[in-house]
Amino acid sequence: MTSAVIMVIISLLSVSPERTGIPLENPLNWWLYLLETRTDVLLPGTFPSPDEGVLLSEGVHMSGFEGPVWVMAEIGLMEQSYLHIGSFGISANGKLAGEVLSVDGEFESRAGVTGGFRVDLMPDLFIEERISLWTGSDNSPPDNFSPYHQGLEHGRRLYVDRGYLQWDPSPVSLAFGRIPQRWGPGRFTQLLLSNNSPPMDMLKFSVDLGEILTFTGLTSTINSDSAIYLTAHRIDFYLRSNLRVGINESILYTASGLDFAYMNPFIPWYPVQWNERVDDNAFLSLDATWKPFRGIETYGELLIDDIQYENIHNRPNKLGWTIGLTGSLASADLGGAFEYTRIDRFVYSQRLPKNYYLHHGDIIGSSLGPDADRLSLSLGSAAAWPLLIRAGADYTRHGEGTVEEGWPDSAVTGGQFPSGIVEYTTGADIRLSWYPIENAEVHGSVRNEWVRNQDHQDGESASRLSSTLELIWNW
């Protein structure tokens, strides 16, 4: 049983999750992260990861997936139909999901279906696309289900989750289209780019220089009908076999046409923004992963939205940071994670509303948002495979600051954190994922939240009990 579980996870690490149709929010992705601590290989800071070899032990190396295909097929993760003629190939996949949700005794129902395909045009060149259709009595899609986008108009339920053309003439990779992204090592949140907002339409370029460094750059649209763009690039240095350091930068800006200064991925953008532009929203980020020994991984991320190195007007810094620790015990199929995130007030905001760090109304960075911090703990077990069990607890403090409050002239250093009347939320949950037969998944959860100063009303308290049961059939 233990070897089967490890082979499933290692196989998923060796094949990009987007190619096997696993959405970023799927419970198995939490295990992808945890199982990194069982290997000697440092995976890149970007996610989905490029195809990587995984070092299982000294002298044993897997490059690509050569494991038991039946394991992945039994849990519905392999493409179920594939036509191959020479270098040309086409495959189709999808899923059907239904969910019942209870919140404080009130029941809601949700259902959705996805359909996708992949076309291999020639070696290293392919097209991939997936479309989702869903409905919900509470106007929300099922959990563990794309799309993230719920539409700006009531009743819109059809969305293109992803669709892109990718060319991988190693060590270079080029992609164009709608591509999901998640940057940073955080298990519970990422500060610069996360899957909190819908996937963006982009042109992406990456190069992998062996065991020395990996470079990634992208240019994407935020609101194509209003000419708002986001560019981002990062470089990952592998300083030692167990230490990776990433340097990241992003710019959200408005332009009447393509801005080649920001589209140039090989120059630092902050001097461009400071000297040649005025109101663009610039971010710097540093992240690192260190594995002191196998089974333990530490990580951190620092987001710099604005730092007042001159501070002429007594303005506050706008910073966010995350620290975390994960561990796994292979002999018992146990894994755990601890993470703390703090985000200052006014982070992701800007003077101009059009430059708020939002995509379709959702923060491109952390879903925690500004003026808040959170402590998260999680423990999972795969000892009862094909049943995954995960228990978690979290404690969140959230002040009155929001992205929409902007960057007012009244903002000065000092004051409490979080600001105003602080809302305190303590949560605990248990999640089960079961893969009983080929193509089938069953996900269930129970969660309770205890809230003080609800909606920032002094003395208001609440307790919310929720539960979900979701059935998924993959094809």
Summarize the structure.
With 475 residues, the protein is mainly beta.
Helix content: under 10%
Question: Under the CATH scheme, which class?
Answer: Mainly Beta
Class by alpha and beta content: mainly beta
CATH fold-level assignment: Porin
Low-confidence stretches: 3-21, 49-80
Mean pLDDT: 81
Distance from N terminus to C terminus (CA atoms, Å) equals 25 Å
Strand content: over 45%
Number of H/I helices: 5
Report Rg: 22 Å
Number of domains as seen in the coordinates = 1
The shape is globular
CATH architecture: Beta Barrel
Number of strands: 25
List SSEs in N-to-C order.
Answer: HHEEEHEEEEEEEEEEEHHEEEEEEEEEEE
Features:
Porin; two-stranded antiparallel ribbon; 18-stranded antiparallel barrel; 475 residues; 8% helix
Description:
This protein has 475 residues and is mainly β. The protein has one domain: Porin (Beta Barrel), CATH 2.40.160.100. Helices cover 8% and strands 51% of the residues. It is built from five helices and 25 strands. It has an 18-stranded antiparallel β-barrel. It has a two-stranded antiparallel ribbon with strand order 1-10. α1 (2-14) packs across α2 (27-35). 37% of the residues are buried.
